Amino acid sequence: xxxxxxxxxxxxxxxxxxxxxxxxxxxxxxxxxxxxxxxxxxxxxxxxxxxxxxxxxxxxxxxxxxxxxxxxxxxxxxxxxxxxxxxxxxxxxxxxxxxxxxxxxxxxxxxxxxxxxxxxxxxxxxxxxxxxxxxxxxxxxxxxxxxxxxxxxxxxxxxxxxxxxxxxxxxxxxxxxxxxxxxxxxxxxxxxxxxxxxxxxxxxxxxxxxxxxxxxxxxxxxxxxxxxxxxxxxxxxxxxxxxxxxxxxxxxxxxxxxxxxxxxxxxxxxxxxxxxxxxxxxxxxx
Length: 286
Ligand code: PDD
Hints:
Elements: E1 4-7, E2 10-13, H1 24-28, E3 31-39, E4 42-43, H2 46-59, H3 68-81, E5 87-94, E6 113-120, H4 127-131, E7 133-139, H5 154-165, E8 170-175, E9 178-182, E10 186-190, E11 195-198, H6 209-220, E12 224-227, H7 232-236, E13 240-245, E14 249-256, E15 259-260, H8 268-284
Parallel strand pairs: 7-8, 7-14, 11-12
Antiparallel strand pairs: 1-2, 1-6, 3-4, 3-5, 5-6, 8-9, 10-11, 10-13, 13-14, 14-15
The chain binds N-(5'-phosphopyridoxyl)-D-alanine.
The site of N-(5'-phosphopyridoxyl)-D-alanine (PDD) has 14 residues, from helix 6 and strand 13.
């Protein structure tokens, strides 16, 4: 079956889903995206993803062509039309197609482009979650507004390609000696004295929805969480490391640049937080 995509008001077969070569998302990466997980046909942590979408578009003065409530309805309809049980909904909004290729915003009434598609993935039973992943480190060469979920992802494409070429599952990006985040995930460690450490939100990282939920769930269980910077040396001396994202939930990290973290296998805290997150995701999915 040809999957169904959403393009500017219509549900169309994915193979026929097209936008203009003048689209400013294509020409300038002048756009915002979101990725939300789907569990048993329902959207995971949807309010959090939609709030971030609203914030991201606001930060670049981009108008959404539909209300947030309508966007969630469209996502649900797309899931239903694709009969998607488990995976992700990808959503992208751009500043539309304008023939001038003017760097400044188009003048007049150029409608935003809104597209969505789904990807099937059994996130709960992913083998990499049971085995853990290796990460490599790369310099963080991105721009200074990483808090905006921009489609300008070339730095992450290169970082994740380097990881893939090295047989690793993610790249941790390093700035001024500290880990910022993964190419498409938030980075965590568990120190020797059982403190969960993750970098605080700022313009240096994307405010991960999964990160936010995991921090809250951990604190509710009286687990100690510190939001502060950490180095690769500290991560290598840690008991555990893990990443969080909509497309992986919580995933243990077992090595950094080929050196083992802790015992070099998935740690109990990462696996516990993964279970806790999946329980939360199921209980609150819409
Ligand atoms: N990436 N940091 C970066 C740079 C990301 O791209 C992502 C998500 C995260 C985690 O955010 P969240 O928990 O809200 O998914 C952190 C998505 C999954 C992607 O680009 O596919």
